[in-house]
Amino acid sequence: MARPDRLTRPASHDGRPVPAPHRVVIVGGGFGGLFAARALHGSTAAITLVDRAQHHLFQPLLYQVATGILSEGQIAAPLRDVLKRHRDVECVLAEVVDLDPADRTVTAERPNGERLTLAYDDLIVAAGVRQSYFGHDEFARYALGMKTIADALAIRRRVFGAFELAETATDPDEQRRWLTFAVVGAGPTGVELAGQIRELATRTLHREFHRIRPEDARVLLFDAGKAPLASFGPALSAKAAAGLRALGVELHLGSIVTGVDARGLDVRDGTGTTHRYPAGTALWAAGVEAPPIATALADATGAARDRAGRIEVEPDLTVPGHPEITVIGDLMSRDHLPGVAEVAMQSGFYAGRRIRHRLRGQPVRPFRYRDLGSAAYLSRGNAVVSAGPLHFGGFAGWLAWLLLHLAFLTGYRNRAGAVLTWAAAFARDARRERTFTTHEIETLRDVYDEPAAGTDRPDEHPTEGRPWPGATTST
Fold it and tell me: If residue 157 lies in a helix (H) or strand (E), which one and from where to where?
């Protein structure tokens, strides 16, 4: 298939055609894609931003949505709103599923199943990563990951629902099972989830139930490593471990989860012995892997991939042999850079500036990452921060955590909303975002799919109290 001709604008006043602008397609509207689009603003490029969601999401605060502190609207912003002043950016609601480097086109699938073909002169792939169950995808049914708003809302349902079911359980063993929460993975996400569930139980819910004591809830944190937050260094890792134990989180380090079902987990410890842990709620925060687009990209270009399936890139973040294709953010593999928001922001900004400089005939320097630090929230008034030579925790770390996350939130409205919500939550232990439904929303059909013949649409009987066929209820 021949490469499509570049589009041309209508002829100018002297009759000569005006060349079409340089076409840039950006895959993904996370930090990498958003910063790339912003860096290209004002250039001669025509930018198409393709994302399967219509919003930009601040993933580092998903756990606060899951535990009832923030609403999903406070950590997400519509892409069209964020980029409304960027008239050169066209937003497309679709998921890129394939590409043809020879033809310089990508194939994207819209929510209704329709496929689009988009031509590019430069392609920026910022598709991020997804949860990895290390070859045990069957665990996903029982151990929820947390990468999207839907994930966070599902976790909220499981966590708050567990306390409700414990309240009405008549069997003491069943009550204890519902009051046991297992978190797999002691990185930032797992540590923050575990700490927040204990804070929720001991500070927010402790006076709201009559038959159970929410503060008796057990939170078990499992990790194959020897310490929580190992990437923060030994000193901060020790601080995190001490802070978690003070909260009442039970650390099970050097442990590998070998099985997960609706009633608990099977875990092999450092001696090779497998133990059974009954638990009403299991949450998964261990490991990530590249999405399917990485496989399509590697197959089409011959690019090498690391153990997590991420694309190995050149110093300028391009795919070897394809200078027109740039991979950024969590999906790129370069110099062992971590999959954090700061890497995505800086690589996105660099990718956009690199294209601008090239179009102007200016030299392009290799990408250089500047580590501005990482932070993890443990509990109210306690966080750990690693920023270059600075490593500190406690209340100072908590203040730094607040400032860091406020700076990275997208939009003044979200920042103001977060400040007001945090003030209420920290001063009064109030968590106002606790609404949940027992229907498994994420199992409903896509809203753009046609219903099967002879069935009703799910919104035609909103008060009958029954889920759409195929949906299940949480247990």
Answer: helix 149-168
Q: Helices 412-428 & 394-408, crossing angle to 10 degrees?
A: 150
**Helix ranges (DSSP H) in 335-444:** 341-359, 394-408, 412-428
Measured CA to CA, the distance from residue 440 to residue 144 in angstroms comes to: 12
Q: Which amino acid is at 123?
A: L
Q: Is residue 400 left, alpha or beta, with left meaning phi > 0 and alpha meaning psi from -120 to 50?
A: alpha
Q: Which amino acid is at 433?
A: E
Could you report the per-residue pLDDT of 321-346, keeping only the tens digit for each?
Answer: 999 999 999 999 999 898 888 999 99
- Reported as half-sphere exposure (CB side, CA atoms, 13 A), residue 338 has a value of 14
Contact (CB, 8 A) for 187 and 214:
no
Tokens, residue 383: 């966080």
Would you place residue 108 in the very low, low, confident or very high pLDDT band (cuts 50, 70, 90)? very high
Active site annotation includes 192: yes
Residue type at 437?
T
Q: How far is CA 240 from each of CA 76, 128, 253, 398, 408, rounded to the nearest angstrom? A: 28, 27, 13, 12, 23
Q: Give the whole-angstrom CA distance, residue 266 versus residue 335.
A: 35
Backbone angles phi, psi at 48, to 5 degrees: -120, 120
Q: How confident is the model at residue 448 (pLDDT cuts 50, 70, 90)?
A: low
> pLDDT-based confidence at 284, cuts 50/70/90?
very high
- Tokens for 224, please give them: 């194959």
Radius of gyration of the chain (CA): 24
Instruction: Say which residue the tokens 């298939």 belong to.
Output: 1
Measured distance CA(221)–CA(187) in Å, rounded: 10
Which is the catalytic residue, given 95, 192, 199, 433? 192
Residue from 175, 188, 178, 202 nearest 282 by CA: 178
Question: Measured in whole angstroms, how far is the alpha carbon of residue 84 from the centre of its chain?
Answer: 24
Q: Do 334 and 317 touch, CB atoms closer than 8 A?
A: yes
Distances (CA, A) of 412 to 55, 275, 338, 404: 16, 49, 28, 14
- For residue 114, pLDDT beyond 70: yes
**Strand pairing report for 374-379 and 382-387:** antiparallel
pTM given for the model? 0.84
